[in-house]
Amino acid sequence: MTRPSWWPHFSSPLRSTAVTARLGRVLGIGFAICFVTGMLSHYQYQPWTWLPEPASPRQLYRFTQGLHVATGVACIPLLLVKLWSVYPNLFRWPAVRSVKHAVERLSVFVLVASALVQLTTGFLNTLDWYPWPWSFPSTHRYLAYVVIGSVLIHVGVKLPDIKYGLQARLSEADVLTEIPWSENPKAHSNAGVVPLEPMPALDRRGLFVAVAAGIGAVAATTIGQTVTPLSRVGLLATRQASKGPMGVPVNKTAAQARVLDLARSPDWTLEVTGPKPFRLTLAELESMAKHARRYPISCVEGWSVGADWVGVPLIDVVRRAGGEESSRVRVVSMQERGAYNHSTVDGPQVGTALLATHLNGERLDVDHGYPLRLIAPNRAGVLNTKWLMRVEVT
Ligand SMILES: Nc1nc2c(c(=O)[nH]1)N[C@H]1C(S)=C(S)[C@@H](COP(=O)(O)O)O[C@H]1N2
Ligand SMILES: [Mo]
């Protein structure tokens, strides 16, 4: 069968296996960083009791989470360029050559589809925008397995092309004759396409400079929500320190959590359960609140800020209730609904966590968890429960 006349032709000499393989290498590293840092974050939600989260370095989660978001966002332009470099493959003739080729096409489809969904929904998540009905964290995690699995399959299938492409110099043109798919490792995006047009204004090195500049711009405008000096260029950084009360962004307000009245009630007390249960009033807590700590608050949605907290060490309350450093502690919020109305503190964090009454030199704003909230080092923001009413020591 001959190629029909309406079948698209591609002639950009910018594309080559050398370009694709290099883009693929960077993208592969990006996906690996996202996967590992994502799994570290997932671990915070479901830790193993025998291997609890360390309490130091206290900025660890802030760093890995910031890296996750910055890398994920940078992967978006990178993936688009990578797709641009190979999409003429979709129009090679004949479209399907063999069963093996069909399976290979299918695996690429799964990879491209899952990666695009993963990166876009991840990005929308950093904007705190969830225009879909499903639970983001679990979908994001399961999709990560699909993406990483299909990356591994893709790398395995394309190994000959990757080797060839990484060895080829950027300035080299590919072999420009059409050779059956399965026989030739050098079969590449431009096979069967002869670049007769004059060289475009951008050469291949120029292409890489443009890609790097694009990625740099996207990353710099995103990490403004973590790296404070960059916040002025944080076009894509939705939650910046300056945008919340007390210089700290708010993820969920007291009104959204429906705790405004309870939180402001003068009758509020903290209930502590355990072998020796007791209650503390806010006045008692504030008279005990002499301990200052500098712990960052690092949201899983990609923003983080360092903050100065004052409060009562959790361990003091735990000991008074008859517990010890090795106790497992559950802190419970006045918020009735929502998955994050409680959290568990165990391992080294029991000794380092603070029941905070003050933030950045002032009594907590109600949106930051007044009258009392948890704050611990190297801990996902979502686990720093606000508007506490009970501490359970076991
Ligand atoms: N009770 C309760 N605590 C909560 C939340 C919540 O929804 N309910 N959100 C968490 C999330 S996702 C983050 S990032 C931090 C943010 O704290 P901040 O609003 O003081 O910055 O609070 C955490 N504590
Ligand atoms: Mo968060």
Secondary structure layout plus pairing:
Blueprint (H helix, E strand, L loop, with lengths): L16 H29 L14 H27 L12 H28 L9 H32 L36 H19 L37 H5 L4 E5 L4 E4 H7 L2 E8 L5 E10 H7 L8 E5 L8 E4 L3 H4 L1 E6 L2 E2 L9 E3 L12 E6 L1
Parallel strand pairs: 1-10
Antiparallel strand pairs: 1-2, 3-4, 4-7, 5-6, 5-10, 7-8, 7-9
Helix pairs in contact: 1-2, 1-4, 2-3, 2-5, 3-4
Bound molecules: the ligand Nc1nc2c(c(=O)[nH]1)N[C@H]1C(S)=C(S)[C@@H](COP(=O)(O)O)O[C@H]1N2 and molybdenum atom (MO).
Structural notes for this entry:
The protein is an alpha+beta fold and 394 residues long. It has two domains: 217 residues, no CATH class; 147 residues, Oxidoreductase, molybdopterin-binding domain (Sulfite Oxidase, Chain A, domain 2, Alpha-Beta Complex). Helices cover 40% and strands 13% of the residues. The strands form two sheets. It has a five-stranded mixed beta sheet. Strands 3, 4, 7, 8 and 9 form a five-stranded antiparallel beta sheet that branches. A hairpin with a 5-residue loop joins β3 and β4. α1 packs antiparallel against α2 and α1 packs antiparallel against α4. The longest helix is centred in the middle third of the chain and has 32 residues. It is elongated, with a radius of gyration of 27 Å. The protein starts with 16 loop residues before the first helix and ends with a strand. The structure holds ligand MTE and molybdenum atom. The ligand Nc1nc2c(c(=O)[nH]1)N[C@H]1C(S)=C(S)[C@@H](COP(=O)(O)O)O[C@H]1N2 binds next to loops.
